[in-house]
Amino acid sequence: MTRTNILEAKLAESIRRMAAAKPFLAEGRFSSQDSKPYPLVVARASGGRVTDLDGNEWLDYNLGHGPLILGHNHPEVRAAVEAQLTRGTTWGAFNEVALELAQTICASVPGIASLRYTASGTEAVFTALRFARAYTGRNGILRFEGAYHGHSDLALLSGKVAHAPATIRDEPVPDSRPFVDSAGIPGSAAAECFVAPYNNLARVAEILAQHAGRIACLIMEPIQLCLIPPRPGFLTGVRELTRRHGILLIFDEVVTGFRVARGGAQELYEVRPDLTVLGKITGGGFPNGAVGGPAEIMDAIFDPDSDRYVFHAGTFCGHPVAAAAGLAQITVLSRDGWYPRLASMGDEFRTALREILRRLGVPGQVLGVGPAWGVAFSTREVTDFRSGLSVDARLSQDVVLGMWARGILYNATRNYLCTAHTDRDLEETLAAFEASVREALDQRRI
Ligand SMILES: Cc1ncc(COP(=O)(O)O)c(C=O)c1O
Description:
Layout: H1 3-10, H2 12-21, E1 42-46, E2 49-52, E3 57-60, H3 75-85, H4 96-108, E4 114-118, H5 121-136, E5 140-144, H6 187-191, E6 193-196, H7 201-211, E7 215-220, H8 234-245, E8 248-252, H9 264-268, E9 275-278, E10 289-293, H10 295-301, H11 320-335, H12 338-360, E11 365-367, E12 372-376, H13 385-388, H14 393-405, E13 408-409, E14 415-416, H15 423-445
Parallel strand pairs: 3-13, 5-6, 5-7, 7-8, 8-9
Antiparallel strand pairs: 1-2, 2-3, 4-10, 9-10, 11-12, 12-14
């Protein structure tokens, strides 16, 4: 049987269910980010595994797109949620659990003295951009190509770079103007957006030298996609440049926050941004986001007598169930000493993947920091979006299919480890990876 036949047989009920839902579900999926090779309808999940409608169990490295660092249905997170549910679902009012989460975040993340909640990372990003504009009185945004900041207008300019031709690999970013990743984004947004390659301090310096007077902030993932680390000196370099030009530095720590360290990438690399954006892990599997910064900025933009005063609101801001889940996750992570353990789990796992590539003689780079990991089948070092375009897309896709055929939910780009993944799970995954790469190479030779 081919892998396609195996997967179609294995996922028969998921495929049937998704086909039946297609007339009601635009494009047949929940989100443009859902890029699965086959329909897989999840029925339930526990620890590091999910079970689908056909009853298959899968080792899960997607983990709800990243919030579930303790794995699915962790008993202490579930208990906190159940206790909260006995008191109600949402109140649209001050509540102790969201206050406690805010205190915990402020005590953990070096760059946050006070914060506002949102209901998602996307919302938190566009809120942070507004904060920066209000504070500086300027409109322009500088960002890095290929970083994902959610799906607001400015986040989708050179974010997914969906329409960029593969030939751009070796070209400089043209005039630092963005690619538009979605229809419906006004030209006025694009006119306010400047784009630089990640890890290229010289280009950031050039853009700022030319346009700083128009730019409110530089927004960045401190570790791009939690996969590509900053070159030594890059983060301190952008910190110095942004400070010198009086523009705010925003770290989007939706993925890195409470993952690569309790205080996120800013703790790991000891660089403090002006504003920090959080999401995923802070909601413990429920929708949540936050934007925070030092008192100097937050007090200035929340001074009702100031013309810099920003309006920020939301039905679900400070949602008690999300806060209870997020707080429980963060508490368990630190109480049980998980940060150093996740870091060494990630390091050892990446080393083992590199060893497989070496053994098979396959060019590639194993990326990731902390519990995030990904394999770029490329002869070139991946340091930014364009060098990432050199990845062998066919080999990547073949390996995804091989992993799926072996019951592993593996993504061609980013994957996450969680505390529920056991040594045996990781060994099984490494064996499946080796077999999948071998198989893909054999097919290529046919
Ligand atoms: C770095 C980063 N920022 C923002 C977002 C958007 O968050 P959400 O999907 O919760 O809107 C994401 C989502 O994956 C992200 O990875």
